[in-house]
TrEMBL record:
It holds the Pfam family 5-FTHF_cyc-lig. It comes from Ahrensia marina. This is 5-formyltetrahydrofolate cyclo-ligase. It comes from the Bacteria. One of its GO terms (molecular function) is 5-formyltetrahydrofolate cyclo-ligase activity. The keyword Magnesium applies. It catalyses: (6S)-5-formyl-5,6,7,8-tetrahydrofolate + ATP = (6R)-5,10-methenyltetrahydrofolate + ADP + phosphate. Keywords: ATP-binding, Magnesium, Metal-binding, Nucleotide-binding.
Amino acid sequence: MEDDSSPCFAHTLVDGQVIDPQTLHDVRVFRKSNRTRLYELRKKQSLETREKASTNIAAKLDDALGDIAEKTIAAYWPIRGELDLRPWMTKAIAKGARIALPVVIKKDQPVDFHLWTPDCAMKIGKWQIPVPAEAKAVSPDIIIIPLLGVDKEQYRLGNGGGYYDRTLVGLSSAKTIGIGQSFARMDTIYPMPWDIPMQQILLADA
Ligand SMILES: Nc1nc2c(c(=O)[nH]1)N(C=O)[C@@H](CNc1ccc(C(=O)N[C@@H](CCC(=O)O)C(=O)O)cc1)CN2
Ligand SMILES: Nc1ncnc2c1ncn2[C@@H]1O[C@H](COP(=O)(O)OP(=O)(O)OP(=O)(O)O)[C@@H](O)[C@H]1O
C-alpha cells in the first residue's frame, strides 16, 4: 500500500529542502537540454548581431540605473556568447561607479566580487574565466547577471553551476538585474527551492 507519510528515504535533500528525486532528475534533464538549445541559438548569431544586442542592452542599463556615481556594480567578463558589457563597464567607471567581476573561489561555493578597471592586470580563473589579477573584494549594490534563459516569473537559467543562486542568498540587499537576448524567454524553468528570481530583467531587442 502507498503511504505518503512514510519516512522519506526516497527523497533527496538539496540546500536543506526535501525534493522528490524524480522531480530533481526531470528538472535537471529539462534545464540541460534548454541550455544546449540556447547555446546553439547564441552560436548561430553573427558577431555583428551580438554587438548590436550588447549596445542595445548598454542603453537599457543606463535607463534602468540612472545616476550610478558612487555605486558598486557587479558586471561580468563575457563567456560563451554572453552580451559584452565591457565598453559599458568602462563608461560606468568614468561616471563614478566602481565595477567588480564575479570570481569563483571554490566549486559549489558563492562567488566573490573583485574590483575591476579597464587597465587592471587579469589572470585566468576557475572555468578559464578571466578575473582581476589582484583580489580587491567588494560587496556590490547592484548585480548585473548574465542569463541564458528566463521565465515569466523572472527565474533565470544560467550556466548550471548554481553560483549566482548561492551568492545571492548572502547579498539580499543588492539589486539584481538579469540581462540577455530576446530568445532567452521561456514559459518556466520549473523553479526549485534554491532558485532566486531576478528583481529586473532586461532583454536586447530582437
Ligand atoms: N561571464 C560569466 N562569469 C561568471 C559566471 C557566468 O555565468 N558568466 N558565473 C555564474 O555562475 C560564474 C561561473 N559559472 C560557471 C558555471 C558553470 C560552468 C560550467 O562549465 N558548467 C558545466 C556544466 C554544469 C552542469 O550542467 O552541471 C559545463 O558547462 O560543462 C562554468 C562557469 C562566475 N563567473
Ligand atoms: N543555494 C544553494 N545551495 C545549494 N545548492 C545550490 C544552491 N543553489 C543552487 N544549487 C545547486 O546548483 C546546481 C545548479 O543550479 P542551477 O541549475 O539553478 O544553475 P544556474 O542558476 O543555471 O547556474 P549559474 O548561477 O552558475 O549560472 C543545482 O544542482 C542546485 O542544487
